[in-house]
Amino acid sequence: MINLQNISKIYHPNIHGLADVTLTIQPGEFVSIVGQSGAGKTTLAKLLIAEERPTRGKIEIGGWDITRVPQRDIPFLRRQIGVVFQDFKLLPRKTVYENVAFALEVAGVSGRRIREVVPQVLKIVGLDEKLERFPRQLSGGEQQRVVIARALVHRPKILLADEPTGNLDTINTREIIDLLLKINAFGTTVVLVTHNREVVNALRRRVITLSEGRVASDHAEGKYLLPV
Amino acid sequence: MSFFINFWRIVASSWKHFTRNLWLALTTVFVLVLALLSVNVLIGVNVLLTNAVHQLENKVDVTVYFQPDTPQAVLEQARFFMVSLPQVKDANLLTADKALEQFKQMHAAEPKIIGALNELDQNPLGASLVIKAKRTADYPFLLEALKNPQFDFAISSKDFEDHTDTINRVRDISRSVQLFGTCLIAVFALFSILIVFNAIRVAIYTQREEIGVMRLVGASNAFVRLPFVLEGIFLALFALLFSAAVVYVAAYYADPQLKGLLDGSDAGLVTYFVGNWWQLLLIQGGSLAALVALSSWAAVGKYLKK
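ok -> structure tokens follow
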């Protein structure tokens, strides 16, 4: 369970990234966090992976207070949460296989296990034929699928996708969203941060709308409504 | 077990990174080679100047001429006394007969001189003792030692006075060369440190985004840092081997060319670089590896904090 209590993030000198946000995400949920640019979506995503710390409030993930997590424990937190980024963030000098394997290597998983699991995960995302390719040899959609494979490979309880379709065309967007739904169906909590209205409205899942750093609405089967 | 798995992964990862990033690696190696060569050129110049000074020092000696009728026992006593002094490197006794023989050989083509010599009833030449000191600074002491009453009465002349100025000049040059050479090597070493540090910083700057990605995937600081440090050590190793090859080839070709400057004597570059190869590799390799490792550690750390 993800639990945010009165979270505020103030950037110097007095810019509110988030202001007094309180929300709870249950295990196995598929939640879309929407809002216009500057609404605080990316700030929220960064707080969830401890890339930034809140100015006030408390964030708990599975009962673990990550607002007080020491710097040295942050890698352990990040191994519990799969993260998918808009700009992919793949390691350009590693192959598809190595990029996915890297997420397990950093956790000290044995070589045998890595050789067993990585091809399986790459098969799920449909890249089992392109293991030895480098990121530059893949399309945008394929690169995003590698990122999802990397996020999934250590079986995280939570998958955080920050604008995963931002750089993709309609067909690739559809494929990535289908993949996220499939992952959610296996029991993984998916937090989708996006400003893509069509995607959110087609999903018919919980939608949290942020506006000027505050929770403007939170609907169980919501839609991304245009601001009035 | 986990330590060895991680260690092996770090080694494998840095080697792959090195080979897949070949252009960046080569340009960094090139900069490191230039830094090493600048230090080695100065070491070579220092060796050359030191050898030149030694050549001059070797030419300096004190020759003591004895009266023609000096008994052999006195001559032997003088030689024995001088050889036993710790300051003496060598003392060669040239007997009167040997001196006459050498004189005749030297003037064999001059019948007038040989004829005049044959007219004499006895050998006009006396014995001589050629003394070489271990250090030029020891000559004044040796001149004092030659005033020993056991053989001083038999000495007709000493020719050291002619070399006093040379010895002093050589001593001054030697001191200046060593001081100047050391200062210049220190300055170049400092420049090289800055160049190497900057080269590594630039190399890591181009990979700053990868460092960020590694962190986001959950890599610990050590897991991010160590491959870069190890890759830096690979670069240092290649630079060391390449510069060693360049230095050896350059010394091999420069040695004969420099003989002219040293009165036909060996310049001693190959002898020095080959004779001291392991110390040079150890000191330069160790310093470079440590410098590169520290630079990599610090440069990566800058992006780990972001």
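The interface with chain B takes residues 49, 51, 72, 75-79, 83, 85, 89-94, 98, 102-103, 105-108, 110-111, 150 of chain A (CB under 8 Å).
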